[in-house]
Amino acid sequence: MIKIIMHGCNGKMGQVISEIVRNDEELTIVAGIDPYTMRENEYPVFNDINKCDIIADVIIDFATATAVDKLLAYAKERKIPVVLCTTGLSEEQLKTVEETSKEVAILKSANMSVGVNLLFKLVQEATKMLAKDYDIEIIDRHHNQKVDAPSGTALAFADKINEVLDNEYEYVYDRSAERKKRSKKEIGFSAVRGGSIVGDHDIIFAGLDEVIEFHHSAYSKAVFAKGAVTAAKFLAGKPAGRYDMSDVIKF
Ligand SMILES: NC(=O)C1=CN([C@@H]2O[C@H](COP(=O)(O)OP(=O)(O)OC[C@H]3O[C@@H](n4cnc5c(N)ncnc54)[C@H](OP(=O)(O)O)[C@@H]3O)[C@@H](O)[C@H]2O)C=CC1
Ligand SMILES: O=C(O)C1=N[C@H](C(=O)O)C[C@H](O)C1
């Protein structure tokens, strides 16, 4: 039985993961971490990760960016692998992820769905063929409770695209103060926030007189939760290192 610590257990994703794990014979949540401890959970919940001395094989994280520093320090000290799903991390935090992964296994992915991870590959292929003549823009649409913009997935798409463009493209997040045309080597971001949209992403290649678009819609949070649970099974017992969903989902 793989023992999990659920970081952010009483948030929206934490609750969906708890439900999936409840019906999975290979997994059990042994502890949860969340500032909100009044909810009835079937496992003990700690309002501070450092209060949790329960032994686990892997941590699944869906919390908030400000909680990630403590999480990484805890994982490093106790050598517990982390499936790191929280988005909106700062440059400094991304460096800490890299440093920490030298001591403990970390699988970081801004999007745990099968569809987005397949699209990462398709969009990279399209970029090789289209980037010379087409402008690249990314739109993400999410619910009104989301705190980070652009989404982690939108940034991950841009990083995948830029990887095949020798990282020469600049990211443009806001054109409202600009009085100039877009340059060729840029990737523009737009973020829509409203209602209960689970998570939509459009990758737009706009050329002369035609537009090619790649679109992904998540219709429920379960697509992310299932991916995180599969990733946790993969990561438990793995040696230190940086992993991502391409290690888990093979196309
Ligand atoms: N990689 C992926 O596939 C996906 C990533 N995400 C990302 O996961 C994160 C969580 O999403 P979601 O569940 O919708 O958000 P929620 O706000 O619903 O849940 C986050 C939970 O984390 C709790 N939290 C706050 N501080 C801490 C802390 N120090 N330690 C532990 N828990 C803490 C929050 O408590 P409180 O409300 O009291 O602050 C809340 O219960 C976001 O960054 C989101 O972008 C989401 C979906 C998919
Ligand atoms: O906050 C969310 O809900 C989501 N966040 C992730 C992101 O920032 O890309 C993934 C997913 O789209 C849902």
TrEMBL record:
Record-linked Gene3D superfamilies: Dihydrodipicolinate Reductase, domain 2, NAD(P)-binding Rossmann-like Domain
Residues that coordinate or bind NAD(+): 8-13, 34, 85-87, 109-112
GO cellular component: cytosol
Keywords: Amino-acid biosynthesis, Cytoplasm, Diaminopimelate biosynthesis, Lysine biosynthesis, NAD, NADP, Oxidoreductase
Swiss-Prot/TrEMBL catalytic activity: (S)-2,3,4,5-tetrahydrodipicolinate + NAD(+) + H2O = (2S,4S)-4-hydroxy-2,3,4,5-tetrahydrodipicolinate + NADH + H(+); (S)-2,3,4,5-tetrahydrodipicolinate + NADP(+) + H2O = (2S,4S)-4-hydroxy-2,3,4,5-tetrahydrodipicolinate + NADPH + H(+)
Domain (Dihydrodipicolinate reductase C-terminal): residue spans on this chain: 115-249
Role: Catalyzes the conversion of 4-hydroxy-tetrahydrodipicolinate (HTPA) to tetrahydrodipicolinate.
Family membership noted in the UniProt record: Belongs to the DapB family.
This protein's name: 4-hydroxy-tetrahydrodipicolinate reductase
Gene that encodes it: dapB
